[in-house]
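Practice problem: predict the structure.
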Amino acid sequence: MWASLPAIIAVFVVSGLMHELIYYYLTRVAPTWEVTWFFILHGVAVAAEVVVKKVVPEKVRLNPVVSGALAWGFVAVTAVWLFLPQLLRNGVDEKTIGEYCKLMNLLKFARHMSTEHTVLSVPGTNILDGLRTGWTRV
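Answer:
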């Protein structure tokens, strides 16, 4: 039972370090270690949950709806506290929105160009005839 607890925490520590690396590549700013602490905190919480589930009898446990809501609340509060500030502080959200706007403009332009310069016609009056004989370019 106890052997899995260090493994659980180790997985979360590695995940935190990997996220710090990803954040570094996104922001090019030295790590603040907030993201790593977010994952360490969640690793400790998961390990505590494992211990509680093994020690506390099932009759005494919280209803799954209540425990699920508490878990979501824990994730939301700690994300706002530790996970998101580094992205917001360095403008990654604004850069990402700007890049998606550029991508959408490119896709709109490509769609406009493809419909403007290519006309597809179907031989015969029935669209199934066109599928059988193939599309022809006009």
